Amino acid sequence: MSVTTTDPCTCPERRPQADGPARPGPGGLSRRGVLARGLAAGAAGALTGLAGAGLSTRLAFAAASYTGDVLVVLSLRGGFDGLSAVVPHGDPAYYAARPVLAVPKPALLGGDAMFGLHPALAPVLPLWRAGQLAAVHAVGQPNPSRSHFQAMEEMERAAAGTSIRTGWLDRMLGLQGASSPLSAVAVGGANSPRSLAGPTPDLSLRSVDSFSLAGESAKRSMAAALRTLYADAPPVLAGPAAAVHGALSGVGAVRTTPYAPANGAVYPETELGAALRDVARLIKSGVGLRCATVDFGDWDMHEGAGAAVAGQPMFERLRELALALAAFATDLGPAGLDRVTLVTLSEFGRRVQENASRGTDHGHGNAMLLLGGGVNGGRVYGRWPGLAPSALVAGDLAATSDYRAVLGEILQRRCGMGSLGSIFPGVSPTGFGVAAARA
């Protein structure tokens, strides 16, 4: 059985799959990662055959203590235009390069002498002013590519110049000793991202309320059959079966109580709103979540991105992002947000010069957004290289900071990580002070 998934990228390239095919049933667990590396092929075949397309987890299911932030990675698929979201209005070359797409200075929000926020980000302006939302500009990958496929693969592997095949979140979770599938959850899609590829347990679910084992029904309990079938099996088989049961039980316990967002939060009725709502639900349920991933695509605006007014594609996409982030922060409340850090990533930025179709093509340097109670927000971090033609790299914004270095600072200050050499080989964390050290 196979399920076709929709890739948010509008270019013909497809998002790569990690560690082989991952073909989940609707609302279920991805089959990738049923077993830890090293299990016999026969055992893997037996379990995946039993559960069909609905089984996902790995061998161990035990909660280790964790006191760091829940890290939420929001991937802006398709090539986010950081120059439109966090506008360098103080650089005159910006307006020269984008006569139609540039955001007029009077429309910008929360700005300083160099930067301002796109007006569509108004829903998160209170978070910016409260110091809970920040940006880092001119970030990028060490070996840039304008291929969605290649750039996404490298961004999520995050080990340029090495032969490492696992994803950076998997390596982080491994160092933390995470062993429960509920430690890392990919929410809102059928497959886990490449960043979670590797031996550490993770889960993928379309939504909390639709999460189930494939074939499960009131008249046919596949979960009960699985428990019975493997109750007396050797550990190599009983372990994964118990892990599946634990994952189903954990999410099932969350689902027993209908969820109502707190503090008057109203999520937009969009896929992103639903996904972040479920992330907040899992965080507040106490299931042991350490990191969550969410995808939000359709940023590949080669044409017709539009001026910075309501109804135009870029404006509406940014507003959808801002409304979901604002609802997420409101739902968590100050105490909840104090133990959460959300970061946005995108495989590359856009070219500085707008094209003849009133859009922008694939570029390099980009902006990251960071949201959380521990974020030192209300400002833009990073070294600005400028947009003068002589400062560009093949027509693109130069990247003066490695995105992994920014993540490294978050991991050390908010997630309790020490040395980052095993997560981001050869990369030192930034010293921007974008986040306060967790007490």
Report on the architecture of this protein:
With 439 residues, this protein is α/β, with parallel strands linked by helices. The protein folds into two domains: 20-58 and 214-258, no CATH class; 70-177 and 265-414, Alkaline Phosphatase, subunit A, CATH 3.40.720. 29% of the residues lie in helices and 11% in strands. It has helices spanning 41-51, 82-85, 92-97, 125-129, 148-157, 168-176, 222-229, 235-255, 271-285, 313-337, 403-414, and strands at residues 70-76, 86-87, 116-117, 133-140, 184-187, 203-205, 291-296, 340-345, 366-372, 380-381, 401-402. The strands form two sheets. Strands 1, 4, 5, 6, 7, 8, 9, 10 and 11 form a nine-stranded mixed β-sheet that branches. The chain has a two-stranded antiparallel sheet with strand order 2-3. Helix 9 packs parallel to helix 10. It starts with 40 loop residues before the first helix and ends in a 25-residue tail after the last helix. 54% of the residues are buried. The model is unreliable at 1-10 and 12-63 (pLDDT under 50).
Q: Determine Rg (CA atoms, Å).
A: 22 Å
Strand segment tally: 11
Helix content: 25-40%
**How large a portion of the residues is in β-strands, by DSSP E?**
5-15%
**CATH third-tier fold name of the largest domain:** Alkaline Phosphatase, subunit A
Q: How many structural domains in the coordinates?
A: 2
Low-confidence blocks of residues: 1-10, 12-63
Structural class: alpha/beta
Tell me which CATH architecture of the largest domain applies here: 3-Layer(aba) Sandwich
Shape: globular
Reported for the largest beta sheet, the result is:
9 strands, mixed
Distance between the termini: 48 Å
Order of helices and strands: HEHEHEHEHHEEHHHEHEEEEH
